[in-house]
Amino acid sequence: MRIESAVTSLSWIPSEAIQGVMHMRAPFDLGVTHYDPPPPERFGDIEDLWREERFRFANHLKAWIEVEEGKVTSYGYSGKGYISSTNIRLGPAGVSVPPVPLPDIQHNPEVGSDSVRFVQTAGGRTGVPAPRRVRRKPYVQFSAPLAWTTLALTISADGTSVHEVVGASKFPRHWIYNEDGELAGKSGLIHFEDWLREAFGKHTPWGDEDSPALVTAVESALERELSGKIMKGGTKPQFRKLAKGEVLVKQGDPGHELFLLLDGVLRIDVDGDRLAEVGPGAILGERAVVETGYRTSTLLAVTDCRVAAVPGDLIEPEVLKQLAESHKREES
What we know:
Blueprint: E1 2-12, H1 22-29, H2 46-51, E2 57-68, E3 71-77, E4 80-83, E5 86-90, E6 93-97, E7 100-101, E8 105-106, E9 110-111, E10 115-125, E11 131-133, E12 140-142, E13 147-156, E14 161-168, E15 173-177, E16 183-187, H3 192-198, E17 215-216, H4 221-232, E18 238-242, E19 247-249, E20 257-263, E21 266-270, E22 273-278, E23 283-284, H5 286-290, E24 298-301, E25 305-311, H6 317-326
Antiparallel strand pairs: 1-2, 1-15, 2-3, 2-4, 5-6, 7-10, 8-10, 9-10, 10-13, 11-12, 13-14, 15-16, 16-17, 18-25, 19-24, 20-23, 20-25, 21-22, 21-24
């Protein structure tokens, strides 16, 4: 009996992802190049997404095992990595710059009597160079950093499979999809400046190291819908940065703002108890808007974070009530 499974990462550049480096933000701010719309919540054929340029990079780890009488008899990889071209607007015409893919790294499978673990790294660099400082002459090099993910997939003889995110570049955002093509996780942090400075040579899986990945749970479909209204509505959000350990709001304080977590991980505490941690895409603060006008929880930065804040009346009250019902974590 043949058993197949898969795990896929789609990597993309979300709005406002590039912070602090003015010369790198300029092409995005001027419209020469672009941020990306979010990938779909579910996909069917990875080749179709690639042709439609719905991602910058993808790691499609697909594998199989053959099982006889409950034992693994053979196995193999059947997926690969993908990179899309970078589109640049120059005058009235556009230019499509081809990417530079690096060879997929497919590690030797770890074979047990009733399961096999596969590990695959895929990625490369865009064709558009980026300046970076170096210690030797000419002290500046023009080459794009590398982006990648390293995924693991364990397939068992009973037909089940489990996936992991072993490592990933610190930029861009990586979304993780299960074997059915459903969104199952997200990278929690983007460190653009670190990536721009470090993601070369030995500091990559094609050298001798990987970067650990922080993966967070997926927000609700309603939150994904509302995040578009917050970022692209008529009211411009105020952007805030939080250092690790800093408090965004404190339980009991008055407040009428909504928050969209753009990057990082926030912890939700109620009456001193830790209830949950949330990652990019989560919308917070709605209960104070629709209930008493006071914060019902404390929001603490587990990592460095960026949030977008907007007035609570930007979103219809009935929609906020629906969101608030799903966020009553202290009752669960």
